[in-house]
Amino acid sequence: VLQRSVGGFCVLSASPIRDKGSKWYASEKMYPHRKYPGYCSGTGYVTSMFVTRRVFEISKHLPFFHLEDIFVGLCINKLGYTFTRIGGFSTNFIPISCSYKQSIITSHGVSPKQMRQAWDLKC
């Protein structure tokens, strides 16, 4: 399924953030387009080694972009590959629980202490 795809919490259309105070700021000079191409959130994504190698090779020929998930998305788009939305990848904070441990692969804002709590949770 992921032979020519990347999977995770994938976004197919998003606008660059032009607010200089944002962690995800991208100036018009850095990225002049109105929309980003598809990408999967940098919280985590999965793919095949075939795609990984191709992304590595094509990345040498694209201009650097500071947001890793967008840059990988630019590479995937250049290669003509696709994005696959996979459940369990989240960009929000999700409270630690047995449901979390059994169904969540990634989430934002989880501290090292909370990661240990999730790991040690007996369900």
TrEMBL record:
GO biological process: protein O-linked glycosylation
Keyword Glycosyltransferase: yes
Source organism superkingdom: Eukaryota
Gene Ontology cellular-component terms listed: Golgi membrane
Statement: the UniProt record of this protein carries the keyword Zinc: no
Chief localisation class: Golgi
InterPro entries hit by this protein: Glyco_trans_31
UniProt entry keywords in alphabetical sequence: Glycosyltransferase, Golgi apparatus, Membrane, Signal-anchor, Transferase, Transmembrane, Transmembrane helix
Bilayer topology: Single-pass type II membrane protein
GO molecular function: hexosyltransferase activity
Enzyme Commission no: 2.4.1.-
Protein localization: Golgi apparatus membrane
Family per record: Belongs to the glycosyltransferase 31 family.
Protein name listed in UniProt: Hexosyltransferase
Organism, scientific name: Magallana gigas
